[in-house]
C-alpha cells in the first residue's frame, strides 16, 4: 500500500510514518503540511490512501478531499482529527472518508485501521479485475444475474474487517450450505451438523470429520472474535461509524460490545473476557444473506 500524509503537525506526520514503516504496512510516498501543498503531488503520485488532518490552515481536510475528487483522484481517505463532532463525521463520510484516526495518535488503533483499509482495497481491486475480465470476454456485467451467495457473504465479512481471517472461508461454506438446502429453513440446524457438512466437503480425502469439525469451530470462533474487536475499536473511536451502528447490535450482544468499549476508553489494563455466540452470528449472517440474495 502507498500512503500520502497531510497534516500541519510535523510530529503527527512522523509518528504515522514510523507506524507504517515499523508495522510493514506499506510505504509513505510523500507528505505535506497543508492541503494546498498536497494537491499536485497527490494527483501526480496517485497514492492508494491519503491520511489527512481535518483542521488545517488555508485548506482544511474536507475541502482538500473535495478538490482532489473533483480532479479525478480515486484513492481512499482516512481522516485524522482531535476534535470530532457528529456533524463533522457525517460530512466527512459523505465526502468519502473510509475511517477516522483520533488524536492523540495511538499505534494500535492506526495499525488496526490501516490493515482493514488494506483489506478493503484488495477486495475492491479483486472485484474490479473480475468485472474487467468479464467485460473483456464479452459479458455485460451490468446485466448479470443477482450476486452470488459468496459475494454477498464476503461483502458483509469485509465490512467487519475479517476478509482473509482463518475462519472466513469456513463461514462462507456454511452459508452456501444453508442456501443450497432445498428447504432453506429459517433457523440453523445444530452447529455440529454444519461443521461436519463443511468438513465432508473439504479438499482432502479420508479426512477425520470429527477432528476437522473441531478445527472449523476454532477457526470460526477466532474470526468472529476478530470481528467483535474490530467493531469495538470502531465504536470507541467513532460511535456514529456506519459499520459499527449496523453490525454491532445485530451480530453481537450489545452489552458485551459496550462493556469492552468502556474498558478501552478507560484504558483498563485488566483483560475482559469476551463472550462469543457463534450460532447467533451465523444465524444473523444467514438471514441477511438470504434477504439480499432474494432481492437480487
Automatic annotation (TrEMBL):
Domain Response regulatory intervals: 2-118
Keywords annotated in UniProt: Phosphoprotein
Gene3D superfamilies: 3.40.50.2300
Pfam families cross-referenced by the UniProt entry: Response_reg, YcbB
PROSITE patterns in the cross-refs: RESPONSE_REGULATORY
Classification via PANTHER family: TRANSCRIPTIONAL REGULATORY PROTEIN GLNL (PTHR43228:SF8), TWO-COMPONENT RESPONSE REGULATOR (PTHR43228)
GO BP annotations, alphabetical order: phosphorelay signal transduction system
Residue(s) carrying 4-aspartylphosphate: 53
Name of the protein in its database record: Response regulator
InterPro entries given in the database record: CheY-like_superfamily (IPR011006), Sig_transdc_resp-reg_receiver (IPR001789), ST_Response_Regulator (IPR052048), YcbB (IPR013972)
Bilayer-spanning residue ranges: none
Amino acid at each position: 500500500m502507498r500512503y500520502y500524509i497531510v497534516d500541519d503537525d510535523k510530529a503527527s506526520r512522523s509518528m504515522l510514518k514510523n507506524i507504517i514503516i515499523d508495522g510493514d504496512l506499506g510505504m509513505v510516498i510523500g507528505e505535506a503540511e497543508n492541503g494546498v501543498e498536497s494537491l499536485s503531488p497527490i494527483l501526480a503520485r496517485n497514492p492508494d490512501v491519503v491520511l489527512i488532518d481535518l483542521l488545517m490552515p488555508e485548506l482544511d481536510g474536507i475541502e482538500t478531499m473535495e478538490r482532489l475528487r473533483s480532479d479525478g483522484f480515486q484513492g481512499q481517505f482516512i481522516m485524522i482529527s482531535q476534535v470530532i463532532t457528529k456533524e463533522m463525521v457525517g460530512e466527512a463520510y459523505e465526502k468519502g472518508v473510509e475511517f477516522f484516526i483520533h488524536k492523540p495518535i495511538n499505534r494500535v488503533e492506526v495499525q488496526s485501521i490501516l490493515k482493514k483499509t488494506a483489506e478493503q482495497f484488495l477486495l475492491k481491486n479483486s472485484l474490479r479485475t473480475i468485472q474487467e475480465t468479464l467485460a473483456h470476454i464479452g459479458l455485460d456485467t451490468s446485466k448479470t444475474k443477482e450476486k452470488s451467495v459468496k459475494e454477498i457473504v464476503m461483502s458483509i465479512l469485509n465490512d467487519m474487517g475479517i476478509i482473509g481471517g482463518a475462519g472466513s472461508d469456513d463461514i462462507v461454506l456454511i452459508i452456501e450450505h444453508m442456501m443450497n438446502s432445498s428447504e432453506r429453513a429459517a433457523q440453523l440446524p445444530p452447529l455440529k451438523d454444519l461443521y461436519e457438512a463443511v468438513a465432508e466437503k473439504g479438499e482432502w480425502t479420508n479426512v477425520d470429520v470429527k477432528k476437522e469439525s473441531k478445527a472449523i469451530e476454532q477457526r470460526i470462533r477466532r474470526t468472529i472474535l476478530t470481528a467483535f474487536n474490530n467493531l469495538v475499536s470502531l465504536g470507541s473511536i467513532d460511535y456514529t461509524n456506519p459499520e459499527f451502528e449496523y453490525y454491532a447490535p445485530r451480530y453481537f450482544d450489545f452489552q458485551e460490545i459496550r462493556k469492552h468499549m468502556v474498558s478501552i476508553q478507560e484504558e483498563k489494563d485488566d483483560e475482559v473476557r469476551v463472550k462469543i455466540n457463534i450460532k447467533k452470528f451465523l444465524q444473523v449472517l444467514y438471514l441477511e444473506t438470504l434477504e439480499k440474495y432474494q432481492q437480487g
